[in-house]
Design goal:
With 149 residues, this protein is an all-alpha fold. The protein has a single domain (2-147), classed as Up-down Bundle (Rhopdopsin 7-helix transmembrane proteins). The longest helix is centred in the C-terminal third of the chain and has 34 residues, at 89-122. The protein contains seven helices and no strands.
């Protein structure tokens, strides 16, 4: 009886003693949940934005960019799974760029959305001056450029 209990305790302590395996397992689980929940939702949001008309695309430009960046990150989860079975050095570069996209790009796009809504509510004259798509495209370049480096 003590032998099986000791073997069970040894196996459990070996699994918990290697934090890299626990972290990798946690990341794979979180990526799987992101693929299952986020990918269809972002494709649906992207479809709604693109089929909504010209005015809808201009007013939701940053939301469109946010959905595209989330879709790219979800597709990056597939690369994370492939990295274990196909050891290619380029996967690590793609994963680092995509990690920058999610950790830097998502907050920057959300900040752009918040600033746009703030200007619309508090400073409507300034919002009407800068509501055109050309200003949003110029401001939308910053998160993409920042995340790629």
């Amino acid at each position: 009886m003590n032998t099986s209990a000791e073997n069970n305790l040894t196996t459990t302590s070996n699994v918990l003693s290697n934090p890299d395996d626990v972290f990798t397992t946690w990341i794979k689980g979180a990526s799987g949940v992101a693929i299952v929940l986020s990918l269809p939702t972002n494709f649906y949001a992207l479809w709604l934005i693109l089929t909504g008309g010209k005015d809808l695309v201009a007013s939701h430009f940053f939301t469109l960019n946010l959905s595209v960046s989330d879709i790219l990150y979800c597709l990056c989860a597939f690369i994370f799974y492939l990295e274990k079975y196909i050891p290619v050095q380029d996967f690590k570069y793609v994963l680092s760029v995509m990690s920058g996209l999610i950790y830097c790009g998502r907050p920057m796009f959300q900040c752009c959305i918040c600033v746009e809504r703030y200007l619309a509510g508090i400073h409507p004259v300034l919002f009407l001056t800068y509501k055109h798509l050309r200003y949003k495209i110029n401001n939308g370049k910053l998160p993409w450029i920042r995340c790629s480096h």
